[in-house]
Amino acid sequence: MELPQYMLSCFCMLLLQHGLCQPYLHLRPVPSDSLPVVDIIEHPDPDNDPKDNDLDERTLRKKLGSHFDPNFMSITLPQPEDSQSRDPNSRFKPLGAMPNDIKRLDLSETPYGRKMKLGKKARRKFQQWLWSYTYCPVMYTWKDLGGRFWPRFVKEGNCYNERSCSFPEGMLCKPVKSISKTFLRWYCQGWSKPKYCTWIPVQYPVISECKCSC
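^ Noggin, sequence as received from the core. Prediction below:
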């Protein structure tokens, strides 16, 4: 979407008035250092792998119980969803309600104390553009956790970072919230052979929200 020059000038003056990276939209959360989850380095020892009789789907579904979430986990790799290639300069259509910080942004006051008249339609158009520009969607892709996890595939979230989410540029989309999903992890202990191995429940965090941040 292309904005009229006077609207861009207004935005630039607002940035100068409040500071380049001040929380004028309160978009400065502290992202979690544990997201996204770092890949686990597995030791390729076949003695530590589950055998065919350890992978009975009915038994494992019963063990996982109500924690099985088909929206975020799968036994086999799901087919990729149809998606159109995106222009890195384009933005996503925001979901949900417009943030109050953008709704309440004063577009009439300039750094020089002058009042600028902005029609209702132009104001709404500018707010929609600003919301779209600073919006940070969560991008989901299926990830293979390996044969020592059940279900084997998790739908992992990542923050969209093909371009800056601020104007002027400088801020990026970063994770601020996550949800935990319970998986089964094949765990072996002891040094003797055969080892004692069993499935144990483990928590796997999935990014659920991203925000524009310095």
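The first strand starts at residue 73 and ends at 74.
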